[in-house]
Amino acid sequence: MLDNPSDMARFIALSTMLTLALYQDAVHRKIPNTLVLAGALTGAGLSLAPTGIGLISSLAGGMVGLLGFGLFYVYRFLGAGDVKLASAVGFFTGFPEIMKVSLCILLAGGVLAFAWGVWTSQLMPALVNLRTACFFRFGKNRPPTSTPHRFTPTLARVPYAIAIAAGTWLQVATPWSPL
User: Of residues 112 and 175, which shows the higher confidence score?
Assistant: First the structure.
């Protein structure tokens, strides 16, 4: 992505948005809509540069990010701010690059979730919650509806902007990207 000045401008703008999102998610546990909207509009605007990725690629990348990570929101694995941030990243990277970025984000998210669970001593309740959620969502032999479905409350939520930023930077900025 860093082949020409236009790519460098996109990378700097993307990094600025991700850094601000990291701060907001770490301090306030929220990613502001204004930040995500400004990032998405900047990504789409920079795609129109003569050496940019093109508006259609930018819009498609944003939609893939929104729909792909939106599924995780539906199942309550991610917050809405995280989904919108992943979509804004798609506006910067475009399609099909967002597919590789998404895989790197998911890899970073798995590492982050494991580390966060160990750090906060919430790994076992989180794994039980994941198993229960998968059983109730995808299990063929579901228990009767009279059985109450309870999750063990976990104290700390993972600031997933860390995984979004790490996965994005890993794919976009490093020559030794895993994909």
Answer: 112
